[in-house]
Specification:
single chain; 472 residues; alpha/beta; Rossmann fold; N-(1-d-carboxylethyl)-l-norvaline Dehydrogenase, domain 2; 2 domains; two-stranded antiparallel sheet; 20 helices; 55% helix; 8% strand; binds 6-phosphogluconic acid
């Protein structure tokens, strides 16, 4: 192949970079990938489908020289300094108008800084969320690009070709200005954390509480995945229950240490929510649960002191399973609602113009939080694009209200039987506060005015008031 003929370049041929490139090639794009490790380039070439144009190189220069103009280059390298290092190495090789995409899970604040750094140099920098794991990257991920709209137009056909499809609609769309792509992906991951935590709490209720075996859990999750809870995370959880351990022959889930890892996106979601501010307590509870899981040694000591005994659930099995399913549905809607409300507020505050109808549309397929529920959200946002909270949609309200009684019952059982359920409880707590015309914060205002003369407003007249409170 002669010079300057490749359509797209990739920096970093780890699993995600390599699979995305192969996906592009399968859709007729000629692609070239750079990795210092020659073995990765070679393995990329050998994995390519016959008849596709795929090349691996070991220097950035070789890659950039062979790309057609304007060059379209994506990097899939670890978030943080490696992204800045790649930018610095690329800069001398680029021309005005070139498009550089960061497809990793970068912190959106870094993306804003990088966009502003590269703009005066004529380089369009785009932050882009990619969800779906390694399998998704190869067969169709959900893709969340943001940034300069003209730069986006250069890569739009390619992204639409490689994205997952729902019907014939691609699971990718322009997510808004500046770092909107990475912002949307961050919140996607916050919701991902929350749903995973809710599923773990449901598992605990059914396993330690109700005494269901892994085989029975498989059946429950299988049934759930055939109905209104159908989603990627329920589906993989179903499969996890049957997986056997190669070493011991036991169920693998039973020999996995109860200590969760996290790379930061969930934590960022909580931090940014506090900054806006916006309330996302179910996501916060999920982040906290992962943090608490890391205190394994202390938990062992505490358990020896407090000796918590999980009481068996005595409710009728079939009925309880159904109620847990309802509760999961209820709480899952609440964590999407919190994440989407966060995007609404962030879009306004940070001037990103995030189209919420497109966000839920492209989350319907390819991504980790894909679920049949997204169709309901899509309906709601299609009716009203500027919906501050999806709970205000009457259709969604009907879905939530129908499961409220089950949620209260199941949470009561969790409390009474000593089964930790912080994310479930926080979902209900959010619901109870969000749907309250009057909260108990009148007392907070009284306290603030008492000790700090912070003033308060009244329900019966306009203005700001301060009282000299009677002491003792
Ligand atoms: C995705 C995932 C992906 C990654 C998470 C894992 O959408 O494909 O979100 O990006 O698996 O970032 O995050 P933690 O390591 O923080 O759980």
């Amino acid at each position: 192949m002669s010079n300057s003929t490749f359509d797209f370049g990739m920096i970093g041929l780890g699993v995600m970079g390599r699979n995305l490139l192969l996906n592009m090639a399968d859709h007729g794009f000629s692609v070239i990938g750079f990795d210092k490790d020659a073995a990765k380039g070679a393995s990329l070439e050998s994995a390519a489908t016959a008849g596709t144009t795929v090349k691996g190189v070991t220097t950035l220069d070789e890659m950039v020289q062979q790309l057609s103009s304007p060059r379209k280059i994506m990097m899939l390298v670890p978030a943080g300094k490696p992204v800045d290092d790649v930018i610095e190495s690329l800069l001398p090789l680029l021309q005005e108008g070139d498009v550089v995409i960061d497809g990793g899970n970068s912190y959106f604040g870094d993306t804003v800084r990088r966009v502003n750094y590269l703009l005066p140099k004529g380089i369009h920098f785009m932050g882009m969320g990619v969800s779906g794991g390694e399998h998704g990257a190869r067969t169709g991920p959900s893709i969340m690009p943001g940034g300069d709209q003209n730069a986006y137009n250069h890569v739009k056909p390619l992204l639409e070709a490689i994205a997952a499809k729902v019907g014939d609609e691609p699971c990718t769309a322009y997510m808004g200005k500046n770092a909107a792509g990475h912002y949307v992906k961050m919140v996607h991951n916050g919701i991902e954390y929350a749903i995973m935590q809710l599923l773990s709490e449901a598992y605990d209720l059914l396993h330690r509480g109700m005494g269901l075996t892994n085989e029975e859990l498989y059946e429950v999750f299988k049934t759930w995945n055939e109905g209104e809870l159908k989603s990627f995370l329920v589906e993989i959880t179903r499969d996890i229950f049957l997986q056997k351990d190669d070493i011991t022959g036991k169920h693998l889930v039973d020999v996995i240490l109860d200590k969760a890892g996290m790379k930061g996106t969930g934590k960022w979601t909580s931090q940014e929510a506090m900054n806006l501010p916006v309330a996302i307590p179910t996501i916060d509870a999920a982040v906290s649960a992962r943090t608490l899981s890391g205190y394994k040694d202390e938990r062992v000591q505490a358990a020896a002191i407090y000796k918590p005994v999980v009481k068996p659930v005595t409710a009728k099995k079939e009925q309880f399973i159904q109620q847990v399913g309802d509760t999961l549905y209820f709480a899952t809607i609440l964590c999407y609602a919190q994440g989407l409300a966060m995007l609404y507020k962030a879009s306004e505050e940070l001037g990103m113009d995030i189209p919420l109808d497109d966000v839920v549309k492209i989350w319907r397929g390819g991504c980790i939080i894909r679920s049949v529920l997204l169709e309901d959200f899509y309906k709601a946002y299609s009716k009203k694009k500027k919906l501050p909270n999806v709970l205000l949609d009457k259709g969604i309200a009907r879905l939530v209200k129908k499961r409220e009684r089950s949620a209260r019952n199941v949470i009561k059982v969790a409390i009474a039987n000593k089964i930790p359920g912080a994310a479930l409880m926080n979902a209900l707590g959010y619901y109870d506060n969000y749907t309250s015309e009057r909260m108990s914060t009148n007392l907070i205002q009284a306290q603030r005015d008492y000790f700090g003369a912070h003033t308060y407003q009244r329900i019966d007249r306009e203005g700001t008031f301060h009282t000299e409170w009677n002491q003792g």
